[in-house]
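Protein modeling request. Please complete all fields; requests missing the sequence field cannot be processed.
Requester role: graduate student
Desired output: 3D structure, token encoding
Chains: 1
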Amino acid sequence: MAEERAAAREAFGLPGGRLALVAAGSWGVGRVEATAAEVVAPGVATPVVVCGRNERLRSRLNRAAVPALGWVTDMPLLMRAVDVLVENAGGLMAIEGMTTGLAVATYRPIPGMAWSARRPSTRPG
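Delivered output (125 residues):
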């Protein structure tokens, strides 16, 4: 497992230490920068932010010395490189993280996502 994690980190150019994957979906929306700052504040982990297709967000984070990636085509590999997933939309990203064996936290959910995750099913039967 340690060798696999090291290889995954090398593939993405990630630093050592504890890493928290901050995922903001394909659009890179929400209070992503605030979330990254709150991951850094206690000094427990370094955030690695997946910005999706939001290149402006990625540029801002990189200027602030926060590891930030654009569109990732191999999320399972990236998830093997980190220690925890912090995501803001629930759904597929959370399931991918849990399947990979990561601790998953939904934090600062974007509007509509938290509601839809708790809404009872309207499907018949």
